[in-house]
Amino acid sequence: MKTPELILLQLKSLGPQSAKMLADRISITTMGIRQHLQQLEQRELVCYEESRTKVGRPTRYWSLTSKGHAQFPDRHQDLSRVLLNAANKLFGDEGVERLIDVRENDLYQRYAEELKKYPEGTERFQALARLRQNDGYMADLETSDGACILVENHCPIGVAATTCGHLCNSELKLLGRLLGPNYQIERIEHIIAGSRRCAYRITPREQ
After folding, report:
1. pLDDT value for 76
2. Which H helix or E strand runs over 5?
3. Spatial contact of 150 and 175, defined as CB atoms under 8 Å apart
4. Measured between alpha carbons, how far is 99 from 92 in angstroms, rounded to an integer?
5. Over pLDDT 70: what percentage of the chain?
6. Cβ-based neighbour number of residue 165 at 10 Å
7. How far apart are CA 26 and CA 14, in angstroms?
């Protein structure tokens, strides 16, 4: 993978980064990173905000523009649009919801089969993140205040989800079904609402 592609991937996965942070992760000089960032800025793929401190020059934190995010294609967008439009024309909103329910059930059966190997706890969450990663969600697992956070840095169904809120509801419902009644799932970041990623807080329910 070429350096510009690595930079875009880091910004997609990690959010705003300084040139030094990117240089440390990609293992090239800060000057080299700055040159690539300038080229990416000229292509309107990245932009920056300056963070001022009491001492020294302000630091530029780089992030993806909407054009930059578009470099990570929604693999299912064409099929999703066709199916959703066809279902809506034939059966109305109810037909669309039924179609999404079928998709959810298919995903549930496939994921649940794999998760049988990991009945509880962090290993189960990690296995779920791997399944989502394999399906194009750029998923990872983080921890915060004792809770596990399932992070999805990309949404391969994002284009369809912007026109059909039931898709996002179905995603949340799917995670709840997979993890079961012993866990509470809360969406704390949402791409459709303007966040750079989707994130779900997983906490045990009080018995």
Report:
1. 54
2. helix 3-14
3. yes
4. 11
5. 93
6. 10
7. 13
**pLDDT-based confidence at residue 79 (cuts at 50, 70, 90):** low
How far is Cα 85 from Cα 127, in angstroms, rounded to an integer?
A: 33
C-alpha–C-alpha distance, residues 137 and 156, integer Å: 6
Mean pLDDT, rounded, of the chain: 87
User: Could you tell me the two tokens for 38?
Assistant: 């300038």
Task: Please tell me the predicted confidence (pLDDT) of residue 51.
Answer: 82
> Quick one: which of 17, 7, 14, 12 has its CA closest to 51?
17
Please tell me the pTM assigned to this model. Answer: 0.71
User: What is the rounded average pLDDT of the residues 76-94?
Assistant: 72
Domains (range + CATH), the chain:
3-69 (1.10.10.10), 77-204 (3.30.1380)
CA 186 to CA 181: how far, in whole Å? 13
pLDDT greater than 80 at residue 164: no
For residue 139, give the H/E element and its range: strand 139-144
Can you give the pLDDT at residue 141? 93
Query: What are 135's two structure tokens?
Result: 């399906």
- Whether the CB-CB separation of 106 and 112 falls below 8 Å is answered with no
Residues 6+ positions from 203 with CB-CB distance below 8 Å: 147, 148, 183, 184, 186
Alpha-carbon gap, residue 68 to 123, rounded angstroms: 33
The two tokens of residue 49 are 């905000």
